[in-house]
Design goal:
Elements (H helix, E strand, L loop, with lengths): L44 H56 L2 H10 L9 E3 L6 E3 L3
Antiparallel strand pairs: 1-2
Length: 136
């Protein structure tokens, strides 16, 4: 529905005899003339090919991106496995180092190499090169 008020038609009455008659002047009709044919409409084929090639390009880009991300995921998985192995190896080496640094193991290993425990402890003076023994 429209917001405009509805038209109300008034009945047509005969003109009053004293009112001047304003009849429209007779119009001369323009002559008909020939019109040029409309230009040929542009073909939609180039536009269709452009749209098709853009869609194809977007799909190819998505495919390449997806493939690259999948390769990266495999590399990441391999690196995680390698990192876990390295952590395990590091933990093993640290525990072995701690075991080899214990005084019991050091004295056993020294005895195997033919070393003997020191009877007295001493210090070397750097200034004159003499050995200072302590009473221990």
């Amino acid at each position: 529905m429209s917001a405009a008020p509805a038209r109300q038609f008034r009945p047509v009455t005969a003109p009053h005899p004293s009112a001047p008659s304003y009849a429209p002047a007779p119009r001369t009709r323009d002559h008909l003339r020939a019109v040029a044919a409309p230009k040929h409409a542009r073909s939609l084929v180039p536009f269709t090919w452009a749209c098709f090639s853009m869609i194809l390009g977007a799909l190819a880009a998505v495919l390449v991106l997806n493939t690259t991300m999948a390769e990266g995921a495999y590399e990441r998985r391999d690196l995680k496995i390698e990192l876990a192995d390295l952590h395990q190896q590091r933990a093993t080496l640290i525990s072995e180092l701690e075991a080899n640094a214990s005084p019991q193991w050091l004295s056993t290993r020294a005895a195997q190499l033919g070393m003997e425990p020191a009877g007295t402890l001493g210090f070397v003076s750097i200034e004159d090169g003499t050995v200072l023994e302590s009473g221990n």
